[in-house]
Every structure is written in C-alpha cells, then in structure tokens.
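Q: My labmate handed me this sequence with no annotations at all. I'd like to see what the chain might look like in three dimensions before we decide whether it's worth expressing. Could you predict it?
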Amino acid sequence: MKNDIYIHDQALIIGRVSIGLSSSVLPNAVVRGDLADIEIGRYSNIQDNCVVHSDMGHYVKVGDFVTVGHGAVIHGADIGDCCIVGMSSVVMNGSKIGRGSIIGAGTLIKEKMEVPPLSLAVGNPAVIKENRFKDCIAPLESALIYYFLTRWYLKGKLPQREDVRKIYDLARREAGNLDGRMASGEDVAELAETLLPMP
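A: Here is what I predict for the chain of 199 residues:
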C-alpha cells in the first residue's frame, strides 16, 4: 500500500510545516508554523488536541518514530528520534529531548531544559531520571501502533477487534526488530526508510 501521511480533516496545519512520510496528525491537533519552521519526521504521530507551535528564534523539530500524546503542547522545542511526549505534557521554547526518552503525562519541560537520551522526565517542573531506559522499544512500539492504525484510516475504515490485536502484535514485533537493527549500528534515518508490513 502507498506509504502516505495521514492528516485528519479536523486537524489544522498552518504555515511552514513539513511532515515526513508514514506520519499522522489526528483530530483537533494544531500544527502552526507561522513564526518559524516546524519539521515532523517519519513514522511520527501528533495525537488529538495537541498544539505544536514555533516561536521567533525557536523552530520545532519532531524526529522519526515519535509519539506526541493527546493534548500535549510542544512550543519551540526539539524532540529527538524515538521519543514519547506524554498526554497533557508541555515542552517549552529551546528545550531538547534526547533520543529514546519518555516525557511522562502532565510533565512540564521548562525553557532551555535538556533531557539526555534514554531518560525519563516526570513532574511539574520536570525531574529527569537519566539512563532510565536501555533501548527504544517502547517509543518504537507506540509510534508503530499509530502508523498501522492510520493505514486503516487511509483506506476509509476502522479496524475491528481482531485487527486491533494484530496491530498491537505487529507493532511489538517490528519495534523489537527495529531496535535490534539500531543496536547493530543502523541509523534511525535508515530505519525510517523501511516500508513496514501491514497487519
């Protein structure tokens, strides 16, 4: 199947925004690149009611295989590859989230804060627990669930219960495969060029 971007009819994209293949923007999300550029990588998802906004002097970059959970706000920040930005969290101007990190639900990442790779950030303001993770399997699985789900949307269908199980099983398996390839030295950008199987 053609490897397209999915943008819901009720999502709003404004200004200088680029969205990579296999990514999705879900209902009522706003991605507004009016004051500076916004770049969203491949296999990433911007979920319902999110706000992604650039600022003067603060572009937004969202890497490959990133999940931005329901109601999160990303403002002028750099989100590395294979990250999860939890529901209702806020990531402020000039902050940087390292590859493989997870921002817990409801967390505030203050301006210019840096979250090291493979870390967990939780709280308001955030407390960073470095080296919490040893791999990127959880973020990869989250991103792939939304990739497979939105392939159904592109066909104009909703998955049935048995299809949902297949989506989760396949996402788990492919996340392990991709993480193993990363551990063997493959670059995330190379992985993002992979056309993944359909459930």
